[in-house]
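User: Sequence recovery, please. Input:
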């Protein structure tokens, strides 16, 4: 059975989206981006909400832009190779290959997808992840923690959910970004 992984860049105070400005990521550093490439290369399916899909669809054509460094080209190839499911009630069409739209998030359908998948899946975006967390579907949490405290926004973990996690791996990067991988107990 494949794992469902929730991974996002998050501020030091736990926000995946800042109320104002950005999260001060540090993820654009080649060392971090290469690490992310290697980490997510085996992913077979990305589960996105509309807003996250609209951000990530950049990777469908990133390889066509001039002077892209090798780590950017590699991530674009890996992203293009994976299946994408976009959960949206408003999106009328998609602009990437291997992508389909689902109108509602169905936990049973995701359970079946996990059971039948040969490769892991990710759920991306705090709103969609909150639904997967509430349904008990998330197996691992990969946090990329910045050095910024943003004071508000959309939280990485939804309110009202209790999780007991086991730290599996951690890594600090020269940029100050910290990677922490937790497994559901």
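Assistant: Recovered sequence (185 residues):
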């Amino acid at each position: 059975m494949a794992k469902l992984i929730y991974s996002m860049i998050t501020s030091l105070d736990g926000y995946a989206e800042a109320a104002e400005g950005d999260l001060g990521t540090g993820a654009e550093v080649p060392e971090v981006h290469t690490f992310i490439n290697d980490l997510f290369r085996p992913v077979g399916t990305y589960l996105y909400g509309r807003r996250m899909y609209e951000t990530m669809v950049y990777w469908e054509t990133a390889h066509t832009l001039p002077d892209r460094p090798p780590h950017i080209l590699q991530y674009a190839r890996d992203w293009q190779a994976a299946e994408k499911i976009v959960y949206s009630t408003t999106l009328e069409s998609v602009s990437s290959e291997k992508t389909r739209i689902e109108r509602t998030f169905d936990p049973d359908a995701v359970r079946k997808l996990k059971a039948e998948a040969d490769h892991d899946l990710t759920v991306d975006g705090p709103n969609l992840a909150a639904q997967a967390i509430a349904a008990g579907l998330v197996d691992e949490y990969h946090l990329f923690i910045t050095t910024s405290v943003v004071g508000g926004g959309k939280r990485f973990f939804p309110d009202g959910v209790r999780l007991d996690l086991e730290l599996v791996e951690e890594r600090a990067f020269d940029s100050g970004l910290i990677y922490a991988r937790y497994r559901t107990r």
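The longest strand covers residues 165-172.
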